[in-house]
Design brief:
Elements lengths: L1 H30 L2 H24 L3 H30 L6 E4 H18 L3 E5 L5 E4 L1 H19 L4 E9 L4 E8 L33 H11 L3 E7 L3 E9 L14
Parallel strand pairs: 2-4
Antiparallel strand pairs: 1-3, 4-5, 5-7, 6-7
Helix pairs in contact: 2-3, 2-4, 3-4, 4-5, 5-6
Bound molecules: adenosine-5'-triphosphate and magnesium ion.
Adenosine-5'-triphosphate (ATP) binds next to α5 and α6.
Length: 260
């Protein structure tokens, strides 16, 4: 009897630790974007400072109005980034509810956009309509962030990131595909990539390498959603991950204005 209680307590403890690990990993994935976000803020500050100087130097109405306009839109761009970051880092509800997959992907793209741009990565997004699935928004965003950061790290400069959001009513899935034109994964390594702590990323000059937790958490998230994740890869050509989540009808009252 005592033994059973002990097992139960240990299981609860594991669940708490897994929850903490998930949160820590979410924060560390934002860390991978730190340099691109700093860069973006520097650009915004340069715009603000230059237009403030211009407005002071040329006090005519037209120039001042133009300067204020530019300063305002730069400020709004900064606010959008910080709001997106905070929402991503903070969100931790574990409710599963109908989510628009296209919207989830777009929110993640807003955070990684600059990083992709800095590495001259061409983004090809194919999503013609809203696709609804039963999902926990913050977990799926974390999963997509992990896949996209991995894709970026596999590509170096001038890669191509292909993103598809599609409905698969015949099989009952809402699907997201993340494909890269990166280095690919050797056939014998493929079975290991979803294992915890499996990484091929060596520590860089600052001692920061991979933890090998990104895909392990992706797998956990997919399991919690009763979804599927599949990977195909070819050395030198690239890797494609396909995520499938249980499809849901668009919620009542939601009118899809895009072409069906
Ligand atoms: N798109 C990809 N292209 C090539 N290899 C990949 C890709 N995605 C994952 N891998 C391989 O799978 C390994 C495990 O990925 P995972 O995201 O779990 O850990 P990581 O990226 O090494 O570390 P972290 O995510 O903590 O930064 C990677 O080290 C890499 O070898
Ligand atoms: Mg990773």
């Amino acid at each position: 009897m005592d033994e059973a209680r002990e097992i139960l307590e240990l299981q609860q403890r594991i669940a708490v630790l897994e929850e903490e690990l998930m949160r820590a990993q979410r924060l560390s994935s934002v860390g991978a974007l730190a340099s691109s976000i700093t860069h973006e803020f520097n650009n915004i500050l340069t715009t603000v400072i230059n237009y403030a100087k211009m407005g002071l130097r040329h006090p005519d109405d037209a120039t001042r109005t133009k300067s204020f306009d530019r300063i305002l839109s730069a400020g709004q761009r900064a606010a959008k980034i910080t709001t997106g970051m905070l929402a991503y880092a903070r969100n931790s509800s574990d409710r599963i509810e109908p989510c628009d997959l296209k919207k989830l992907l777009e929110d993640v793209l807003m955070l990684v956009q600059k990083d992709l741009q800095m590495h001259r990565i061409n983004v090809d997004l194919q999503a013609s309509q809203s696709v609804w699935a039963k999902a926990n928004a913050s977990q799926i965003q974390q999963l997509l962030m992990n896949l996209i950061v991995n894709a970026r790290q596999a590509m170096g400069e001038n890669g191509r990131l292909k993103l598809i959001v599609r409905d698969n009513p015949a099989e009952g899935w809402g699907e997201i595909v993340v494909g890269d034109s990166g280095c690919g994964i050797p056939h014998d390594k493929l079975p290991h990539i979803f294992e915890s702590f499996y990484t091929t990323k060596k520590p860089d000059a600052r001692g920061q390498g991979g933890t090998g937790l990104g895909l392990a958490l992706c797998r956990k998230i997919v399991e919690a959603h009763q979804g599927r994740i599949r990977v195909e890869s070819e050395i030198g050509k690239g890797t494609t991950f396909t995520l499938k989540l249980p499809r849901s009808e668009s919620p009542a009252g939601f009118i899809d204005t895009s072409a069906a």
